[in-house]
Amino acid sequence: MNIGGRAHTAAEAEAIALAGFPFVEISLLDAHAFHGGELHRLQALAENHGIMYLAHGPEEGDALDPDRLRSGYLPQIRSLIDCAAELNVQVFTLHFWIDKRFIPGPVIEKKILLLHELADYAHGRRVQLCVENLSEQAADLGAAFEEIATLGMTLDIGHGQLLSGCNTAYEFASRYPGRIRHVHAHDNRGGNSPGDDLHLPIGQGVIDFAAILQCLKLRGFDGTITVEVKPEHLATGSAILQRIWREATI
Fold first, then answer.
1. DSSP alpha helices (H): ranges in the chain?
2. What is the DSSP letter of 187?
3. Residue 159 in contact with residue 205, Cβ under 8 Å?
4. Who's near 105: CB < 8 A, 6+ residues apart?
5. 217, 241 in Cβ contact below 8 A?
6. 2-184+221-227: which CATH architecture?
């Protein structure tokens, strides 16, 4: 199990690398800006510090408009997957909201088709595309996983605590252990709105990380975890998760 940090700029990525973390999850939002200077700086960091990169794409915008997603978001993500390939990114995480409580069935069907195209494109560029859970229950992703063989999942433990009586990480780990390629870890106090997604330091909310990591370990997960907190809380969060992981039994 490897732990890294989230960076929105090359400067933040450098700080994470200098702190000794093995990988950085970098935000890839604009292909033009990436080629305008970020690429070479990030490549130099990888060469000088031996780090690897994961990537996180931009928000999808209007999640209820698949036609706009096809005309604008799909080509945008394809161009960013190209950027990820240049950086030898291992995992590209995408927000693609398909919660049946909020997204109509016909819209979800069209969005799964789009997601299939993106997953195939990423696979051809040797990049693992992962969809991140937002408010979805495990069953909401079932159709996408059934339809798209190459699609992975970034399990966001913090998001799992929202709009749910029990953290959905347990159900995702039970139903789709082979799809979970990456994990996001941050804390919150539960809730029912985007404003409750607090990204608190590990241990300052209500999430039972020990039980969830135990569940993941029992189901064979041994991959990468991004601690999605403010930079000043990254080292402490990493230490807590490493201790929990060592103490978890299989």
1. 10-18, 31-33, 39-49, 66-68, 74-86, 105-124, 142-147, 157-160, 169-175, 209-218, 234-247
2. B
3. no
4. none
5. no
6. Alpha-Beta Barrel (3.20)
Give the distance, in angstroms, between the CA of residue 57 and the centroid of all CA atoms in the same chain. 9
120-124 contacts: CB < 8 A, separation 24 or more? 120/150, 121/78, 121/81, 122/81, 122/84, 122/92, 122/150, 123/150
Q: For residue 212, give the DSSP letter.
A: H
Q: Please enumerate in sequence order all residues whose Cβ is within 8 A of that of 137, keeping only pairs 6 or more positions apart, or say none.
A: 99, 164, 168, 171
Is residue 172's pLDDT more than 90?
Answer: yes
The predicted model scores a pTM of: 0.97
* Closest CA relative to residue 183, chosen from 224, 222, 214: 224
Which structure tokens are listed for 53? 């990169």
Overall average pLDDT of the 86-103 stretch: 97
Query: What average pLDDT score do residues 47-54 get?
Result: 96
Q: Any idea of the CA torsion for 139, 144, 145, 150, to the nearest 10 degrees?
A: -160
* Alpha-carbon gap, residue 72 to 111, rounded angstroms: 13
In this prediction, residue 202 has a pLDDT band, given cuts at 50, 70 and 90, of very high
CA gap 23, 52 in Å, rounded: 5
